[in-house]
Amino acid sequence: MRTRRTHLLAVTGVALAALALTACGGGTGTRDEGAAKTSSTATTGGKGTAVPASGKSTGSGSTSGSPGSAKGSSTSSGSGSAGSSGSAGSSGSSSSGSSSSGSSSSGSGGSSDPTDPKNRVLCNGSNTKVTAQPVSRPLNHMLITVKNTGSKYCDLTYFPVLRFDEMQWVPQADEQTHPQAVTTLAPGESGYAAVLLSAADGSGEGGMTGHKLTVGFQGKTPNSSGGASATPALPAKGVYYDSSLKVTYWQQNLDDIAGW
């Protein structure tokens, strides 16, 4: 009896041990499987983490969005660098332009200043060329042109003082033609005055033909002498005038007296 019990106990112990091993092995397998999944998940997560670690992205939690962000950042960085370089070039160019502009301004400052009294004189027969030309329109009119032939600015003051031949009276000026400022001529420029020779309706008196014309210039005050007079040539047949003889003030622009 003891022997059978011993064998039974031994068999029973082996069976229990096998069952225990089977049960234990199943538990470990389940834990191992879970651990494997965890490890696999961790590995996957590791791959996902390795993406930003590669330098392709730093600002996005999404792996798929990170490369785009990284590329955009790289492009922006390059553009900024190029912009800086361009900005430096532009700055240099601008500086060069400013220097050139300053040089040009300095050059223009060397020209004569018409507001300086040293650069201005009175226009007269010694520094101008004077012409007197009858015109077809308006009727019975003549145009006097004065061109500055000197090296300085000259002023045409008031109006021309006309004298045909040995005429003993001075034609007056039409006050409606008085300019707002003194007519100043730069070297080479011209000024103008129109002359009404005779009345178109024949109402003028003492009509006669003049063959010589003297053009006098006034000074800085009315009726004062402005210097040498001029004697422009007249047509060979002379110029007819009467008591209606009248002149305009000196003008800078011919258009101002074109319809006078």
Question: What do you see in this structure?
Answer:
The chain starts with a helix and ends in a 13-residue tail after the last strand. It is α+β, with helices and mostly antiparallel strands. It is 37% helix and 20% strand. A hairpin with a 5-residue loop joins strand 2 and strand 3. The radius of gyration is 55 Å and the shape is globular. It has a domain of 137 residues. The strands form four sheets. The chain has a five-stranded mixed beta sheet with strand order 2-3-8-12-6, with no helix packed on it. It has two helices and twelve strands, in the order H-H-E-E-E-E-E-E-E-E-E-E-E-E.
Mean pLDDT: 71
Radius of gyration: 55 Å
Number of helical runs? 2
Classification by helices and strands = alpha+beta
Number of strands: 12
Report the principal-axis shape.
globular
Q: How far is the first residue's CA from the last residue's CA?
A: 164 Å
The percent range for strand residues is 15-25%
Element order: H for helix, E for strand: HHEEEEEEEEEEEE
Low-confidence stretches: 1-111
Query: What is the topology, as strand order, of the major beta sheet?
Result: 2-3-8-12-6
Describe the largest sheet: 5 strands, mixed
Helix content: 25-40%
